[in-house]
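Is this the right way to post structure tokens for a design question? Let me know if I should format differently. Anyway, here goes:
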């Protein structure tokens, strides 16, 4: 009986440990609600609405006027605050980034609930909710910055304190080991943690490989955490690369791409130029498509209904032909005896 209890306890601990391996990639809004005199406002309803999907999350301030709305997917949000005897507060274009805890203190004005105050921009505030420091590559940068071989991880080189130590020629999406060679804040390379939507994305083969490199168009944004004072992060002697994938939205989107290289468009190699040889034959095609949007089902998932379902799918293929000829020479039997009379120079 004792062994059975111990076995069940061990199994439960293993299950809990598996859940603990995932880190939180979603954002949090927290702060306090005040009136115009600086007094706190309890029982105020705070609502955060994702403008892309209309996903709504709410919280109510406590007796100290404090609220917190966790588990918000990165994106653009609209925040509203309603309280009896005060005008409604509306904050537009609040950008939530991966893993960020955004402080948002709100001041309400006395008036009717039917009246409202709209705020479209505010002065940037210092990060006071966490001691961790992270740099963000946002959606626009992922979509518009030029990328060799369309590898989103290479955008990490834009960040201060982050240095790519791998070979410049091995940056393709399937070069999982070479593209994992990053030094963060002077730390040793091959000691970083890679996350995909908060789940571990480190490969088991080799040392510190990336298990899966997502398609560029499927990436919403990603962060590189340069110090990890938060207790949820661990298992790394370097930084934490956290990639967030896109999800569908209220609108349909279709994207297609083709990255092409041909011999006529390539520069010749240094070795070929040295001997007057022509450019080698080279053909490369990296192409694909992506589509996303809402799912509508009659009487179940309506366009303006409370229940919403979205989809996002992408495909990419990589084909390259690059003939490389290798010429080897073998020693004659006489050379093994020290006779090199048959050794001749190349014409």
């Amino acid at each position: 009986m004792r062994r059975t209890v111990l076995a069940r306890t061990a199994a439960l601990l293993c299950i809990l440990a598996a859940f603990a391996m995932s880190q939180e990639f979603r954002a949090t809004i927290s702060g306090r609600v005040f009136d115009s005199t600086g007094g706190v406002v309890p029982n105020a309803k705070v609502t955060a609405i994702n403008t892309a999907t209309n996903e709504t999350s709410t919280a109510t301030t406590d007796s100290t006027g404090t609220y917190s709305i966790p588990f918000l997917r990165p994106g653009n949000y609209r925040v509203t605050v309603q309280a009896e005897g005060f005008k409604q507060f509306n904050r537009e274009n609040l950008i939530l980034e991966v893993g960020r805890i955004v402080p948002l203190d709100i001041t309400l004005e006395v008036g009717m609930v039917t009246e409202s105050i709209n705020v479209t921009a505010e002065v940037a505030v210092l990060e006071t909710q966490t001691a961790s420091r992270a740099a963000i590559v946002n959606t626009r940068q992922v979509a518009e910055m030029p990328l060799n071989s369309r590898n989103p991880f290479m955008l990490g080189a834009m960040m201060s304190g982050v240095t790519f130590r791998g070979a410049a020629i091995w940056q393709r999406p399937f070069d999982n080991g070479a593209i994992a060679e990053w030094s963060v804040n002077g730390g040793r390379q091959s000691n970083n943690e890679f996350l995909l939507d908060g789940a571990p994305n480190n490969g088991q083969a080799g040392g510190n490989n990336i298990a899966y490199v997502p398609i560029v168009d499927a990436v919403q944004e990603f962060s590189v955490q340069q110090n990890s004072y938060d207790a949820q992060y661990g298992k790394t002697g370097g930084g934490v690369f956290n990639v967030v994938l896109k999800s569908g939205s209220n609108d349909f989107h279709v994207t297609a791409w083709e990255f092409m290289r041909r011999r006529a468009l390539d520069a010749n190699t240094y070795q070929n130029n040295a001997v007057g040889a022509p450019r080698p034959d080279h053909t490369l095609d990296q192409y694909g498509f992506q589509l996303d949007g809402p799912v509508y089902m009659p009487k179940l998932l309506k366009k303006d209904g409370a229940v919403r379902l979205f989809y996002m799918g992408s495909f990419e293929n990589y084909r390259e032909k690059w003939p490389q000829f290798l010429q080897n020479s073998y020693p004659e039997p006489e050379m093994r005896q020290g006779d090199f009379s048959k050794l001749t120079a190349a014409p």
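Format looks fine. Someone answered above. Worth noting: The radius of gyration is 28 Å. Helices lie at 2-20, 139-144, 270-275.
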